[in-house]
Amino acid sequence: MKKKVALVLICSISLLLVGCSINKDKVINKYNDIIETFGKNALTKDNDLVGKRFLGKNYNIGTYECNYNDFHNTEVLFGSCKVNRPKEKISLIYKVSVDKGRGKLVCKNNGEVKTINLFEGAGFESGEINITVYDGDFYIGFIGDHFSGSLNLISKEI
Q: What does UniProt give as the signal peptide span (predicted)?
């Protein structure tokens, strides 16, 4: 649905601009603003999150703290969508305590969804991963499969 709306907007803007003398950079920046708006809507809304998210200077940066109890869902915690993204590197620091169930920290970047880490079996785990953010979709999410435990996540620029 989002892709269809974006396509309609692009076509509409293109038709308006045919024959006009325009600044290419302004068009790209305006298109990027529209795409960013759609990208922001992909994040789980604050009031729908189980825990507390504190965003930094943009939607890719911040902290998230949560205590889950039999969580069986997905939360999209950080991320954005940009067409013309400046080179950006993110450090993702996580601490997870598992009481029961399974949890998975995932990253969608450059069109690929990758598992950062899978948490299962009672115990504590922590780690850090550096991610180069590419044009297009970039999202960090947590998927729970009847997960009970805690998640502390920090996403920061490096």
A: 1-23
Q: Domain containing 91 — which CATH number?
A: 2.60.120
Q: Give pTM, 2 decimals.
A: 0.80
Could you identify the residue written with the tokens 């954005």?
80
Q: Are residues 62 and 106 in the same domain?
A: yes
Q: Report yes or no: 77 and 44 within 8 Å, Cβ to Cβ.
A: yes
Mean pLDDT confidence for 33-46: 75
Taking only the tens place, the pLDDT of each residue in 89-111 is: 999 999 999 999 999 999 999 88
> What are the residue ranges of helices labelled H in the chain?
2-17, 24-40
| 25: containing domain | 2-38
Residues with Cβ within 8 Å of residue 52, at least 6 apart in sequence: 64, 65, 66
- Whether residues 147 and 81 share a domain: the answer is yes
